[in-house]
Each structure stands twice: as structure tokens, then as C-alpha cells.
Design goal:
single chain, 123 residues, alpha/beta, Transcription Regulator spoIIAA, five-stranded mixed β-sheet, 4 helices, 38% helix, globular
Length: 123
Amino acid sequence: MTDFNLTTQHTDGDLALAHVAGELDIATAPILRAQALALIEQGHRRLILDLAAVTFCDSTGFSALIGIYRCAKTADGTLVLAAVPDRLDRLLRLTGIGALLPAHPTAAHALVAHAPGPDTATA
């Protein structure tokens, strides 16, 4: 079995931070997608995926990220990436998908960038 783990830290209402570790491949991409979609369905429509501990990502892992983005968008939410490994970052840029999936150098940077402001209205 492929090494994979997703742990979630709910940070603020509709915002959730999920730490992804291990390999994103044909065996684990469906798990990532299901767990991320479950977070969105639970009302955490602003999702940050921290990919710092991702050791490998094949086309099925890449496709899962696109699917998660689409579902978040349908829920009037967002998907943001943090600490994207170099090879995946290159793939995101080459395909143009990086324009849809904002990336931050660390999860902490992503949290600061996506924290609700003092004048932000909540739905």
C-alpha cells in the first residue's frame, strides 16, 4: 500500500487547513479527493492543502487536485495550495492550472492570506 496521510486543522468557520503527506497516486488520489470533498460538504468551502510532506504526485494526484478545485468552486469556495513540491509546482505552471490554484510558500502564509479581515462579512 502507498504511504498517504491527510490530517485536518479547522481554523475558522468555513476555512480548513489540511496537511497532506506521502504519495499522491492512483491508490491515494481517490482518498484525498473524498476527504477534501467531505470537508467542503461539512461547510469548509475555503480549503488550504499543505503539500509540504508530499513525496510524489502522478497524473491521478494532479487530477484529484483539479477535481477538488472544481468542487470548491461549485460550493462558492476556494482551493489554495501551500508548500508545493518543486516538481508539482512546475507541472501546475506548465499546464496553466497554477493560475487557478494560488500557492503560498508555507501553510502559515496561506492562513494569513486567507484569514477573514475585520470588515469581512460572514455568510
